Task: inverse folding
């Protein structure tokens, strides 16, 4: 309930039940020839009177540019970066060339990063610091109403930890396992770590070996 009218444009109809947006446009662009889907995009943007594009991940802004770049539509854009789209800037590619040499040069484009760390990575990649705003991820305020901040573990029961993230090196699971080994050696009480991951299991074998070696 704001003064803004939000419309969501998407290609794959995933999470419809979890995210039932009132206004959404589903465009499966691979189903059309380029000259057709370009005009569909133009029709959507012009008919809805879009004033601002918010690109969730810089990768998605690049995909949009690949589809409508030659239409000459330079709408003010906020590019929200979250991680993988930042790290991909380290590798020479058409994506990096677009972000650094075209997108970052536009006066009507700004970037956000979810942490100071990612902001620094963007700067290291060559993005001007004054083009980046740190905008941390947020949670529903109900989280704080149920959050336990002290005396939640007295060592008399098993401490259960949950970690969610792809099993890739820069997620740092190995540091968590090392920390737990140190915790076990200096504290009393049992603990149990559960790791949940989806795509990306590069470190699975190494992490299992590390956990076994540490007992």
Result:
């Amino acid at each position: 309930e704001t003064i803004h009218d939000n419309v969501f444009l998407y290609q794959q109809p995933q999470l419809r039940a979890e995210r039932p947006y009132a206004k959404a446009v589903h465009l499966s662009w691979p189903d059309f020839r380029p000259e057709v889907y370009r005009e569909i995009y133009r029709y959507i943007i012009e008919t809805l009177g879009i004033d601002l594009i918010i690109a969730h991940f810089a990768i998605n802004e690049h995909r949009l540019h690949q589809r409508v770049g030659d239409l000459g539509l330079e709408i003010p854009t906020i590019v929200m970066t979250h991680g993988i789209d930042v790290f991909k800037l380290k590798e020479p590619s058409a994506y990096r060339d677009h972000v650094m040499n075209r997108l970052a040069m536009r006066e009507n484009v700004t970037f956000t990063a979810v942490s100071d760390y990612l902001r620094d990575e963007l700067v290291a990649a060559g993005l001007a610091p004054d083009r980046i705003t740190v905008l941390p991820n947020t949670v529903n305020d109900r989280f704080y109403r149920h959050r336990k901040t002290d005396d939640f573990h007295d060592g008399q029961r098993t401490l259960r930890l949950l970690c969610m993230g792809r099993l890739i090196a820069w997620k740092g699971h190995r540091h968590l396992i090392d920390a737990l080994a140190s915790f076990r050696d200096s504290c009393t009480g049992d603990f149990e770590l559960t790791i949940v991951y989806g795509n990306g299991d590069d470190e699975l074998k190494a992490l299992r070996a590390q956990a076994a070696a540490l007992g």
